[in-house]
Design goal:
The complex is a heterodimer. In chain A, 82% of the residues lie in helices and 0% in strands. In chain A, helix 1 packs antiparallel against helix 2 and helix 2 packs antiparallel against helix 3. Chain B has one domain. Helix content of chain B is 79%, strand content 0%. Chain B contains 4 helices and no strands. The radius of gyration of chain B is 18 Å and the shape is elongated. The chains are: A mainly alpha, B mainly alpha.
């Protein structure tokens, strides 16, 4: 099915994949530099959103609808990990 | 399933919008001065960015199967991204992360704790 795509759509998907991958790499700078823990949590959340975007783009590129489900599951995991990290910062403990 | 040109054009447009907002969100994350400003940039921009990529998925796959999952993904992102940003900002306030410049918390917010 991927071969039936118009050429400009193929190029657009590839360009968006390159942009999203590069942005994921750039957000890693904020994870390393910080300076505070909430900064790192925000940066990791952004990386999670970018990976969700990459999964959707991969679904478009290959025509495999399963990868949309993969990205939804990644979004859920990212939300839970953000909540867990924020609780860890405030309470110092996730499960009492 | 063959795609017609209008469908492919709409998908391309949504991909452009989504990539642009992801770019804006990450530039804000890297360039803004404190954690509250960075959160403001990423939570809004990446929500819109990822949501328009999901919408591109809906246009691409049609209204059933994976396209419907994409719509659920949009609803999920719009519910969880503000919640996550709010929880992180509460955590930052309790940690005592200062504002950039001379801004400060109002008195009522501090008395709540």
């Amino acid at each position: 099915m991927a071969s039936e795509l118009p050429a400009f759509l193929d190029t657009a998907i590839l360009a968006a994949l390159v942009v999203a991958s590069g942005l994921t790499l750039l957000a890693g700078y904020r994870v390393i530099v910080g300076p505070t823990t909430p900064d790192r949590v925000v940066a990791l959340d952004t990386i999670g959103t970018n990976v969700v975007a990459i999964a959707v783009l991969y679904a478009l590129q290959t025509g495999e609808g399963l990868f949309v489900t993969v990205s939804l599951v990644l979004a859920i995991i990212g939300f839970i990990s953000t909540i867990a990290a924020a609780r860890f910062i405030t309470e110092g403990d996730i499960i009492e | 399933m063959t795609m017609n040109t209008i469908q492919a054009g709409v998908v391309t447009l949504l991909l452009g919008v989504g990539s642009f907002f992801l770019l804006v969100g990450t530039v804000g994350l890297l360039r803004l001065p404190d954690v509250y400003n960075r959160m403001h940039a990423t939570s809004k921009a990446t929500t819109i960015g990822a949501a328009s990529l999901f919408l591109a998925g809906t246009v691409y796959f049609g209204p059933q199967g994976p396209g419907l999952v994409s719509l659920i993904g949009i609803i999920f992102l719009f519910l969880t991204a503000p919640t996550g940003a709010h929880v992180i900002s509460r955590a930052a306030q309790k940690m005592g992360v200062p504002f950039y410049g001379d801004a400060d918390w109002p008195e009522e917010a501090l008395e709540d704790d």
